[in-house]
Amino acid sequence: MHAPVADDRLARRNAVILAVAQALAGANSTVVFATGAIVGAQLAPSAAWATVPVSVFVLGMAFGTLPVGAIARRYGRRAAFLTGATAGGLTGLIACAAIMTGSFALYSLATFFGGFYAAVAQSYRFAAADTASDRFRPRAISYVMAGGVVAGVFGPQLIQHTMNFWPPYLFAASYLAQAAVAVIAMMVLAQVRIPLPPRAAIGAGGGRPLGEIVRQPKFIAAALCGVISYALMNLVMTSAPLAMRMCGHSLEDSNLAIQWHVIAMYGPSFFTGTLISRFGAPRVITVGLLLLCAAGIVDMAGVSVAHFWIGLILLGLGWNFGFVGASAMVTETCAPAERTRVQAFNDFLVFGTMALGSFSSGQILAAAGWTAVNEVIFPPAALGLALLLWRGLARRPA
C-alpha cells in the first residue's frame, strides 16, 4: 500500500478520532498520577518508596516507545494503538487486584502497563500529522493534544465518584472503571485510517540512517527541549498529590489540583498549533520553559491549596508550550518514510529521561521537602533556553 498524498480532509478526520482517543487514554494517566503516590504510600514498605509506582509508569512509557514504533512500521499505526489500549485494560484490572490484595509489586506491574498505554497515546499526535499537509500539521498535533482537556475533567471525576465504592479498598473501583474506559478506547481507535509507509521505504530502513537525522542541530534542540519540558513537569506532578496530603490538604483538593493541572496541560492545544504556525516552534518552546520556572517560583512561595493549584496550572501550561512546540519541531527534521523511527527514538529519549527523574521525585520529597523538588526546575530550564538562544532558533520561525 502506497502512502497517500497529504489530504487534510483525511487528516482532520483522523485528528478528531485521535482527539477522542487521547481523552480516553488521558483518563488512564490521570488516574495513575492522581492516585499512584497515595496508593503507593499505603502499600509500600517505606514512605520513600511511595512514588515508585508512578516512576514505574514512566518506565513503562520509556520501554513502550521503541516497540510501539516497530509495530507501527510493520503492521500500521492502528495495530500499535490497539495494542496500547489492551495494555490500558490490563492496567485497571491488575491495579484493582493489587489494591484488594495489598500487593505493592502487583500495583507497580499495573502502572508499568499503564505507562506502556501512555507511550502509545503519545504517538497519537504524530499519527495525526502523517496524512496532513505541511500547513495543517502543527494544528493536527495540537488538535489531538486538545483531547486531553476532556481527560483533565473526566479522569479526576471518575476518581471522585468511584474511590470509596469498595471500602476499605480505596481507589479499587476507580481502576476497574479505568479498564472499562480502555475498552471503549479500543472501539474508537479501530476507526483510524492511516496507511502503511511504502514497502520500499520499509525495506530500505525508512530513509536516512537514524544517526544522520538525530545529529541535526534542529533535532538536538527539539529533542532536548522536549525532554526538559516533560521531565520537569513529571518530576513536580509526581510528588504534588503526596505533598498536598503531607501538608494536611484533603483528597478532594488533591484530585481537583490534578484536574486543573491536566486541563492546563491540554487546554492551550486548541491554539498552540496556530501560535507555532505564526511565531515558530522555538519561540513557543521558550515561553513554555519560562512558564515552568514560574511554576517553581509559585510552589516555593507557600503550601496553601491556592499555591498548589496555581503552581500546577502554570506547570501544565509550560509543559504544553514546551512539549507541543518540541513535537512540531521534530516533525520538521525527517521525511515521511523516516517519521515512525525518528518519532519513536525521540519519545524514547523523552520518557527514558523522565524515568530517571521520576524515580528521584519521591526521594527528594521525603529527604528534603516540597521546596527542594521545585528547585530542580531551574537548571534544566536554563539549559534549554541557552541552547535555543545559542542556536539562534528563538530569533526566527522554524
UniProtKB/TrEMBL annotation:
The UniProt keywords, alphabetically, are: Membrane, Transmembrane, Transmembrane helix
List GO molecular-function terms, semicolon-separated: transmembrane transporter activity
Question: Which regions span the lipid bilayer?
Answer: 50-72, 79-100, 106-128, 140-159, 165-189, 219-237, 257-277, 284-302, 308-328, 348-370, 376-394
Q: Source organism's superkingdom? A: Bacteria
Name the Pfam families on file: MFS_1 (PF07690)
Q: Record keywords: Cell membrane included?
A: no
List the InterPro entries: MFS, MFS_dom, MFS_trans_sf
Q: Where is the Major facilitator superfamily (MFS) profile domain?
A: 218-398
- Record's protein name: MFS transporter
